[in-house]
Amino acid sequence: MQTNIKTIGRIAYIAAVAAICTVPLVGGIFHWGSQSTENRTMLSLPKLLETTEDATRFNPAFTAKLGNYYAEHFGFRQELVTANAALNETLFGRSANSKTTVGKDGWYYFNETLDDYTGVSALSERGIYRLQKTLTLMNGYAEEGNVTMLFFAAPNKNSIYPEFMPGQVRHSTNPSNLDRLSEAMQGEACYLDMKSLLLAQKAGETRDIYLKHDSHWNNLGALTAYNAMQDNLNSRIAAFDYQPVGEADTHITEIQIPGDLTNTLYPSVKKTDLQYDLGLEKAFSSDRPLTDLMAEISTTCEGRYYNEICYRDSFFNALIGINSNAFAKVRYTRALPYDMTAARNGNYHVAVVEIAERNLPVVLNKAPIMDAVAIELPRDRAYVKAAQRCRLADKGDYFTFNGYVGDWAALAADSNIYIELRDAQGKSYCYEAFLIAEEEPYRDDGFSARIDKYSLPNNKYDVYLHVGDGDSSRYTDLILDIIQ
User: Fold this and answer.
1) Which of 364, 383, 402 is the C-terminal boundary of a domain?
2) How far apart are CA 370 and CA 135, in angstroms?
């Protein structure tokens, strides 16, 4: 009798486990609880047979694709993902998702900001100088075209609210890339130190200025960013159509919204975040509904004079409405590299460049699209007998130079790189290069420059590469590897 009871117990246990394992499969067939809330296209069911021009045959990738399909569509997937996240957070204080860090007091952080927080992503001194030089060259090019440029980095949430980060994540005691760039750009009118402004606001504010369940600032933080932009432009543009917005101009109400970080952790539970509706009247119109914020957007607003081009990422989403009210025409683009020729050729008065702090190194991935800035040759020049190779691409209306400097240059952290073209009469034309290598962007010894053919009066030149500063340089012959 005891043996029969044990046997029945084993059978019942096996049946229960089998039933539990079968539930997701059956649920997937009938689409129970398998609808995803993720902001991406889900996989479709793969075909067992594939048909070509010659024959119909078994799809060799069927099993692998079926496994991936099932991983996204099994029954009660969202409920199980949510339960797993809740267990990990409650029992271990950790995130079940590789994109999210669980902080203290209900705060969540984007994992891609951890390298800044811990100092893992720290750029070299040369890297910071390369960033600084890229921005100043962009600004110089904009000024030549009577365009006022403004650059700022939107701080990571843990740069403004580090106190809610989990204790096991060690905060670097060294200045971050953003701190070091702000110090290097101090005194440059085109640079806005947004981190200092937001920290000052936080110190005097009883309300949060970043979302707890999302990776971005809330509308109060965005309002501070907007007013800082308006103040900067008003100080630099005569008769600027100044449009600051104070709280007296708004009708702030509290609303609940989902957060991008908790959406992935708790897809079956509608966790919401406290947001502030500024109650601002919409005065602009857009070329498309503002539902797809990944797309390029153009807006117009009657009664305004100045036009703006805005190079931006997702942090600017909260600014699109209020910013569009302030300009006659705005073009919002997320394209990289920055096409600065669009700023000068599109009848824009203002070029705003915004990027998330965590993405600052991305600025060095590829040189902005613009003609190299012409400069005077350094006064003191020392020739070095050490020929330097460089790739030259003929792009129709312009040439692009791309390469790396050799040991002859004795490259310092703040060395600039210039390209000199010298004609048969000895007249020189000198251009400052970006400190960016197109093929290996994180090398500190790279350079690139785009030179307009029609800015040159002759067709034949000797070419030299200079390394130094505005007063002195070492230079050598530049041997060109032509690429058509």
Assistant:
1) 364
2) 12
Q: Both ends of the chain: CA-CA distance in Å?
A: 89
Whether residues 53 and 157 fall in one domain: no
d(CA 276, CA 257): 10
389: Cα within 13 Å, side-chain hemisphere:
3
- Amino acid identity of residue 40, one-letter, is R
- Residue pLDDT, tens place only, 298-322: 999 999 999 999 999 999 999 999 9
Look at the pTM and tell me if it is higher than 0.85: no
Amino acid at 212: K
Q: What angle do CA 355, 356, 357 make, to 5 degrees?
A: 115
Cα distance between residue 233 and residue 221, in whole Å: 19
Q: What are 220's two structure tokens? A: 């109060």
CATH of residue 440's domain is: 2.60.40
**How many structural domains comprise the chain?**
3
**Are 130 and 435 within 8 A, CB to CB?**
yes
SS3 per residue for 124-168: CHHHHHHHHHHHHHHHHHHHHCCCEEEEEEECCHHHHCHHHCCCC
Please work out, in degrees rounded to the nearest 5, the angle formed at the alpha carbon of residue 293 by the alpha carbons of 310 and 356: 55
**How many contiguous H segments (helices) and E segments (strands) does the chain have?**
12, 21
Bond prior to 244 in cis (omega within 30° of 0): no
Task: Determine how β-strand 416-422 pairs with β-strand 428-432.
Answer: antiparallel
- Is residue 132 a contact partner of residue 181, using CB atoms and an 8 Å limit? yes
pLDDT digits (tens, 9 = 90+) for 234-291: 999 999 999 999 887 888 898 887 877 766 655 645 778 899 999 999 999 998 888 8
